[in-house]
């Protein structure tokens, strides 16, 4: 079963993060959906998450992970050295999520907002769910 990454479709930083994952996920383990999409909203509802989520969400093995837990779990399936970030999961959650929260809170200010999405190649487009 593949993992599904939910992301803010209006956020430049989130878009760059998705592109980062795609480049380092040669096996295509992750599929993607924007939080704003119908599927994204349905998955948030299914896992009792806030519909105005400002976090990456990873759905994997019928569980939803958010914030730093999602980001670190994603690294487990990426190419070579990125896997070595996963042990940071041992850092206490409040500290990890505080750092994550600072970035999430300032992402539009620091990285801007998108007016439109980049059109991916047909091969990559298949990994984006409606």
Mean pLDDT: 85
Rough outline: globular
Task: Give the domain tally.
Answer: 1
Biggest β-sheet: strands ordered side by side in the sheet: 2-1-3-4
How many angstroms separate the termini? 18 Å
The helix-and-strand class reads alpha+beta
- Helical content, roughly? 40-55%
Continuous helix count: 5
What amount of the residues lies in strands? 5-15%
Q: Work out the radius of gyration.
A: 14 Å
Poorly predicted tracts of residues: none
Largest sheet: 4 strands, mixed
Number of strands: 4
User: Helices and strands, in N-to-C order?
Assistant: EHEHEEHHH
InterPro entries: DCC1-like, DCC_oxidoreductase
GO molecular function: protein-disulfide reductase activity
Protein name: Thiol-disulfide oxidoreductase
Organism: Peribacillus loiseleuriae
Characterize the structure shown.
With 130 residues, this protein is of the alpha+beta class. The protein has one domain. The protein contains five helices and four strands, in the order E-H-E-H-E-E-H-H-H. Strands 2-1-3-4 form a four-stranded mixed sheet, sandwiched between helices. A hairpin with a 2-residue loop joins strand 3 (57-60) and strand 4. The protein is globular, with a radius of gyration of 14 Å. The model has no long low-confidence stretch (mean pLDDT 85).
């Amino acid at each position: 079963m593949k993992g599904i990454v939910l992301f803010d479709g209006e956020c430049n930083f989130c878009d760059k993060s998705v592109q980062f994952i795609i480049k380092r996920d040669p096996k295509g383990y992750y599929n993607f959906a924007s939080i704003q999409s119908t599927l994204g909203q349905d998955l948030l509802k299914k896992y009792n998450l806030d519909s105005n989520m400002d976090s990456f969400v990873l759905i994997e093995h019928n569980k939803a992970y958010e914030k730093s837990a999602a980001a670190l779990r994603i690294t487990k399936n990426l190419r070579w050295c990125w896997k070595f970030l996963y042990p940071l999961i041992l850092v206490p959650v409040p500290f990890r999520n505080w750092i994550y929260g600072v970035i999430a809170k300032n992402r539009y200010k620091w990285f801007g907002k998108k007016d439109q999405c980049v059109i991916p190649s047909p091969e990559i487009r298949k990994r984006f769910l409606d």
